[in-house]
Amino acid sequence: MASEKIELDVLTMQDLFGVSDTNLRILEQELGVKLVTRDGDVEVSGQEEGNIRLAVQTLEMLNQMRGIGEKIDEFAVVRALESVRQGRAEETVTAMKDVVAYTYSGAPVKCRTLGQKKYIKAIEENTVTISIGPAGTGKTYLAVAEAVRALKDKKVNKIVMCRPAVEAGEKLGFLPGDLQNKVDPYLRPLYDALDEMLGPETVQSYMEKRIIEIAPLAYMRGRTLKSMFLLCDECQNMSISQHLMILTRLGEGSKMVLTGDVTQIDLPSPEDSGLERCAQILEGIDDIKVIRLSGADVVRHRLVGKIIDAFEKNKAGIEKKPDQNKPPFHKGGNKNFRKK
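The chain above was modelled as a monomer; its predicted structure follows.
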């Protein structure tokens, strides 16, 4: 059995190991190694020398992440291990150092993955950015952070955010209130992100002054958006003609971000979604960037990435297939049914 040691001070060990050594257990399970603390050292032992080296490098990366203020939890351990496996530990830590913006409470908003870093860079360097990726990859949140920063830096005069009001199992007509009350639940994620960045009072004030506007996609038709930052969210629920409509709203001095998840299409006919087709048409055009995020960029619970990967691998099996032994149902009744 081979082994290797890494020297860490007591306080560092407490932060890295987690409550009841939870973080160490993750490395042990993932790599099949044993971690033991002795006299200020962590000894990593196991049958595979390659896995021992991976564990040591992951601890070293976690120590670097701790040094730049990153919270070390179960998800951070999994993320660090994946970066080490890909040989991208150093550049991932470097990406985490850059602060995108600060929240209303003063907390820094940072990129957590290389994919997110590419996404932020794309927004900053291009007029139009299309971001496609699964839930939890920060598509909307980071775009809102960039929009707020552009407004504060006076690069734009206004923020406009929109989403298609497409039902996901419920109907707008069943909700109480007038039209605005009915569409507000669909726009709530945008309000939440803005509240975190600016504070509810500032958001309300900006909305009253029309510095910030949040509206359903249908309200965008016929407009020309000049010196504005436009974020169009949930674009997987838009047709290709709706993509063309929103893209042609672009005016002088404006920036546009379109986000969506092609695995969460709520349209009655999923093939009507125009997001992927739009990305294919525009990819390669100067000043337009298409960013594709994956399960590796998920920054929610560590299981979310695994769930997404599992569903993606079993996509074909998930599709509901008709029971071949069940006779077809006819509108006029089942012809195979015989009255007794």
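The first strand starts at residue 2 and ends at 7.
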